[in-house]
């Protein structure tokens, strides 16, 4: 999963775009949801706007309430089950997602266990399986030839799935 946000402060910033690719334990895609999320435009920082491609025109036209994502995920979540979130710096995403779920008064079905592709990439770097100068998503995805992140939630999410698939492939 991946989010794009109004900034980098989980206490005050908001989600503006979210992508979630659900897979089974063989990493086969079950479903996905990608959407722009309505938010308070006054919270958008210039740095975030430059990085995530926000335009008022696009969000005015395409943004939906976060509850649309909540309802989709609830439909995909069997009773009393939870999802193990995976992402690049996924703790940041989960903090904002849980805050958005709380505002919608819905149960957030994410486990406190997470798979962070930054950590996976760090292990590969230590094991000298990849030679990268940093653990940024675009650098790692390029080294592993899996996806083309471009600072949209969907492309970054696809790159993370690719990283996890590559790591699992190396372990087999």
Strand order of the largest sheet: 1-2-3
**Main β-sheet, in a few words?**
3 strands, antiparallel
Tally of individual domains: 1
What is the helical fraction, as a range of percent?
Answer: 40-55%
CATH class: Alpha Beta
Instruction: From the alpha carbons, calculate the radius of gyration and give it in angstroms.
Output: 16 Å
Low-confidence stretches: none
Shape, principal axes of CA atoms: globular
Structural class: alpha+beta
| Cα end-to-end separation | 24 Å
Order of helices and strands: EEEHHHEHEHHH
Instruction: State the CATH topology.
Output: Nucleotidyltransferase, domain 5
How big a fraction of the residues is strand? 5-15%
Number of beta strands: 5
> Per CATH, which architecture?
2-Layer Sandwich
Give the count of helical stretches.
Answer: 7
On the 0 to 100 scale, the average pLDDT is: 92
Would you identify the CATH H-level superfamily?
Ribonuclease H-like superfamily/Ribonuclease H
